[in-house]
Design brief:
Elements lengths: L6 E6 L3 E6 L2 E6 L11 H5 L2 E3 L3 E4 L4 E4 H5 L28 H4 L4
Antiparallel strand pairs: 1-2, 2-3, 4-5, 5-6
C-alpha cells in the first residue's frame, strides 16, 4: 500500500477530533489535547503535515509528532491553561511601602 502524505480532519465531536494522517486514523480527545477544545473549526482544520511525521496547526500554534499520537504514554505532560494573578503590594498612606516590608526577616 502506498503511503499518502496527506492529513485531514475527518470529524469534530464534543469529545475530540478524528483525523486521517497518511491513511491512518487518530482520535485526539480534548482530555488528552485540551488546547483544541475551544478553537474554531477553521483553526482546527488548518493543519499541515511536515516532514511526514510532524503535525502543525499554525492558527493555534500547536505542533505534534505522529509518535505522540501513537504512543501517548511516552508523553505524559498535558497543556493546562494558567490563570494569571496580579499581586498588588500594599502601600502606606504616604505612598511608600510600610516599614515592615522593607526590613529583611531572618
Amino acid at each position: 500500500m502506498k503511503k499518502s502524505n496527506t492529513v485531514r480532519v475527518e470529524n469534530i465531536t464534543p469529545f475530540g477530533i478524528w483525523m486521517l494522517v497518511q491513511n491512518k486514523e487518530y482520535f485526539l480527545s480534548y482530555d488528552q489535547y485540551p488546547y483544541f477544545k475551544d478553537q474554531t473549526l477553521q483553526a482546527i482544520q488548518n493543519v499541515h503535515l511536515l516532514h511526514g511525521a510532524h503535525l502543525h496547526w499554525p492558527d493555534i500554534d500547536v505542533d505534534l509528532e505522529i509518535d505522540n499520537l501513537e504512543n501517548p504514554e511516552k508523553y505524559p505532560l498535558k497543556s493546562k491553561k494558567i490563570a494569571r494573578t496580579v499581586v498588588k503590594k500594599r502601600t502606606s498612606r504616604a505612598g511608600r511601602l510600610p516599614a515592615s516590608a522593607s526590613r529583611p526577616t531572618h
